[in-house]
Design goal:
heterodimer; A: 187 residues; alpha+beta; 8 strands; globular; B: 81 residues; mainly alpha; Non-ribosomal Peptide Synthetase Peptidyl Carrier Protein, Chain A
């Protein structure tokens, strides 16, 4: 298995699409708690403790998984002001498969930050980690994320009362990513 | 000429995933419960795809009603439907 920790350390921190990306650190605990406990933003995610110390403990345990190349929690900041904007997470990483989620961004960043963060992190999965497929869980009531996810033509592999589960492969991701980047940037 | 009713139907489909909800030019779309940046992106893509009009993010941020979007498209479309 490739050393994905080494790979991610060669990529992050970095600037891309007018944003700054790096791995989550303990100093981000308060930001994470504030996002995950925001009334509107937290409607479609698993419940999170509102205690900073609980988040610090979670980050401490996460850092072990990060060191082992199994879990990468990425924070997106404004490139110029370094304001913290949002989060993405690549986790349960195996040779050819991983899960992607914890996608949460402040409202009204005004820079399409959540989309650029999503595209940046999924590009790492497919193009740097050389992973063939990633699993996406989307809450059925989260209509905007569901529509966005479906625009990549993923394969639906399951569902329950709460969520749909999709497999996304590189070919379908790249096609829609390039279309969106062509639309919103000069890349 | 851009058909106002068709435009609003297309916008309603993007905003609410249905054309069964009554949307008017006076509707404040940002106040809808499901409004978020992804929905905003979908609006921008719809406008570009159907009317070949680019709606820059900073301009979009200043638009609040369906009529604001419609007027922007009308004023910036080079080829009407």
């Amino acid at each position: 298995m490739e050393n994905r920790k080494k790979i991610i350390d060669e990529i992050l921190p970095t600037r891309k699409y007018g944003h700054y990306f790096r791995l989550v650190e303990p100093e981000d605990a308060e930001f994470i708690v504030s996002l995950r406990n925001d009334t509107k933003l937290s409607r479609y995610i698993n419940e999170t403790s509102s205690k900073i110390e609980d988040q610090l403990k979670w980050i401490e345990e996460y850092k072990i998984r990060e060191k082992n190349g199994k879990d990468f929690y990425i924070i997106c900041l404004s490139e110029d002001t370094k304001e913290k904007l949002g989060l993405n997470r690549i986790y349960k990483i195996e040779d050819s498969y991983c899960e992607f989620g914890s996608w949460l961004y402040k409202a009204n960043t005004g820079k399409l930050s959540s989309i650029f963060g999503d595209l940046f992190c999924k590009s790492i999965i497919f193009e740097d980690f050389n992973i063939n497929k990633c699993l996406l869980e989307v809450r059925k009531k989260n209509k905007s994320v569901l529509r966005y996810t479906k625009s990549f033509n993923p394969v639906i592999i399951g569902e329950n009362d709460l969520s749909y589960y999709f497999d996304l492969d590189y070919k379908n991701f790249k096609k829609q990513r390039d279309k969106l980047l062509n639309f919103f940037t000069n890349d | 000429m851009i058909d106002e009713n068709v435009f609003i139907e297309r916008l309603a489909e993007v905003l609410f995933e249905t054309n069964e909800i009554t949307l008017t030019k006076g509707t404040y779309f940002r106040q809808h419960d499901d409004w978020d940046s992804l929905t905003g992106m979908a609006v921008q893509v719809m406008i570009k795809s159907n009317y070949n009009v680019e709606l820059p993010v900073d301009v979009f941020e200043s638009l609040n009603t369906v009529g604001d979007i419609y007027n922007f498209v009308i004023n910036n479309a080079s080829n009407n439907e």
